[in-house]
Design a protein that fits this description.
Elements (H helix, E strand, L loop, with lengths): L1 H13 L4 H40 L8
Length: 66
């Protein structure tokens, strides 16, 4: 029984067709983690910048319509 399982799984383990896809998936996963960490770290500062823009736009007088 063990030898049958070994004969079934060993060729599949040595198959390297999907190796490139797995490597790309790992890279994409790591990039996603880095992006989330950067957004969490810089999120409050980015929010302050956008709030400053909104506040300055609120002070601009509205254009009268004819």
């Amino acid at each position: 029984m063990l030898s049958r399982l070994k004969q079934f799984f060993l060729p599949k383990l040595r198959n390297e067709k999907g190796q490139g896809m797995v490597e790309y998936a790992l890279i994409i996963g790591l990039v996603a983690i880095v992006v989330v960490v950067v957004l969490l770290a810089l999120g409050p500062k980015i929010s302050e910048i956008f709030q400053g823009i909104i506040d300055s736009l609120d002070r601009v007088p509205a254009v009268p319509t004819a």
